[in-house]
Amino acid sequence: MSRKLELIVLAILLIFVAQFIYVSSTTNAEYGGADDKPEGVIEEITGGTYKPIAEPIWEPPSGEIESLLFALQAAIGAGVIGYFFGYYRAKKNYENKLGYKGKSKPEGDRHSL
Amino acid sequence: MAHLLYLLYLLLYIFIIYGDPMHIMEGFLPAIWCIVWFAISIPVIALGIYKLNKLVKEKREILPLLAVAGAFIFVLSSLKMPSVTGSCSHPTGTGIGAIMFGPAITAVLSTIVLIYQALFLAHGGLTTLGANVFSMGIVGPVVSYLIYKAGMKAKLNFYLVVFLAATFGDWATYIVTSTELALAFPAGNVLSVAGFLSSFSKFVAIFAITQVPLAIIEGAVSALLFKYVIEVKSDILVEMKVLEDSVVRKIRGLSA
């Protein structure tokens, strides 16, 4: 099985990581998006007159709680993806091994979609 | 007045720390624009729910793929990544859903993620939900979908097409977000072409550089996920007319 695509993706990720290491060690970027450029664009445009019309109903009380909830979001997603890939992989594997291939083909409904 | 300015500064600071190019923070659109974007987004979400019900009724076997497409949005939009500009943003993950199920159903999946983030993470907001669904759930996926269809018609390499579709879908999302902000906050406080363009260039300048590397990563990871879907479940993609049989055989031939 060709692993060409994996290598390309890995290369892209490595370039990204290298960029991060370089930028974070040569500058004192805060990585919050809090650099001078975006700060106060709305304020600058409106002359500081804009007042938000609503505030979040609930905010994570701390950065830790926020990262907990973000991690939870990623974990739920990763779990679902892993479950179904594992399911399909095993199914395909056993179908091939036990020769169920012909029987398990779903009936295609050509009229839908 | 000084207190108010301080509060505004604080909110902007929070906006910049926790907010990001993708989602417009709660309250950061005037009411009229909230209504406009809801008015545009709600019919698309309704169409998406209708299509989703129809699809699930006719083909129950697509449910796992639907879950994977939704979960991919969940994972990618939770990954705040550092970018070249020294600020953070996150990908959208909507390309996969758009290619497999079309933009309307992807709008529904995105809405679920956006509501989760608005309620539990103070990320995005309920008043700005319409605007955020429009950028992330509608225009991004539409762009991905069109690029995918055009690319496949032109018989380009399948993974390259997925990469381009997901990457440009991501970029389109931030361009729309900048547009939404510029429409709400045109320079000179009066909506004119010049005022809009002036504000637009400011918002795009902030978000453009940050989002470029993230969009590329999103494209690459989306292509990789598609590879694995084809490996285990290509028949369903052919059945849904996402891929032609000949393309699957060609990919298999190359990677087998």
UniProtKB/TrEMBL annotation, chain A:
Free-text function comment from the UniProt entry: Part of the energy-coupling factor (ECF) transporter complex CbiMNOQ involved in cobalt import.
Keyword Transport: yes
Record flagged with keyword Transmembrane helix: yes
Subunit: Forms an energy-coupling factor (ECF) transporter complex composed of an ATP-binding protein (A component, CbiO), a transmembrane protein (T component, CbiQ) and 2 possible substrate-capture proteins (S components, CbiM and CbiN) of unknown stoichimetry.
Gene: cbiN
Subcellular location: Cell membrane
Keywords: Cell membrane, Cobalamin biosynthesis, Cobalt, Cobalt transport, Ion transport, Membrane, Transmembrane, Transmembrane helix, Transport
Protein's name in the database: Cobalt transport protein CbiN
Bilayer topology: Multi-pass membrane protein
Family: Belongs to the CbiN family.
Transmembrane segment boundaries: 68-88
Pathway membership: Cofactor biosynthesis; adenosylcobalamin biosynthesis
GO MF annotation list: cobalt ion transmembrane transporter activity
Top-level taxon of origin: Archaea
GO cellular component, one term: plasma membrane
